[in-house]
Specification:
Layout: H1 2-9, H2 11-14, H3 17-31, E1 41-43, E2 47-49, H4 50-70, H5 77-98, H6 108-118, H7 123-133
Antiparallel strand pairs: 1-2
Helix pairs in contact: 3-4, 4-5, 4-6, 5-6
Length: 135
């Protein structure tokens, strides 16, 4: 708690508080022992794994909070790519940690969902490029 109070007092670090909180929440939720090995399904005419959607949403939020903290513009493709790689590696690391927790399991589909969530930071750049090209 002391760290967050100190970070929020200093202006240059204040913008990183949402990113740090999001990463801590994702980490904490990912290592909590669960029944069913963490795979929640919902039958709506077909089997939908709800955890895949939660992975994508969680890593979308993490990627966007980092983009906002870094103040990345639409054309900063190098920065966006670094954020994408960082968030994807963070997700893969958490999946690796889950492999050693007895009631959790590591999953390639979860890693893919993490990466898909992280790639949403490219969507505004794509729309901006298309808009500029056809104006």
């Amino acid at each position: 708690m002391w760290l967050f109070v100190q970070l929020s007092k200093e202006n240059r670090y204040r913008r990183w508080v949402p990113s740090i909180c999001c990463a801590i929440i994702i980490f904490a939720v990912s290592i909590i022992p669960l029944q069913n090995r963490g795979h929640t399904t919902m039958g709506i005419g077909f089997i939908l794994r709800m955890d895949i959607i939660l992975h994508a949403v969680g890593y979308t939020v993490l990627a966007w909070t980092i983009v906002c903290a870094r103040k990345v513009g639409l054309t900063d493709y190098g920065e966006i790519l670094l954020i994408l790689i960082f968030v994807t590696v963070f997700g893969a690391g958490i999946e690796g940690i889950q492999a050693i927790i007895p009631t959790r399991q590591s999953s390639i589909t979860d890693m893919i969902a993490n990466a898909v969530g992280a790639t949403t930071i490219f969507i505004p750049s794509v729309f901006d490029c298309v808009r500029q090209r056809y104006q």
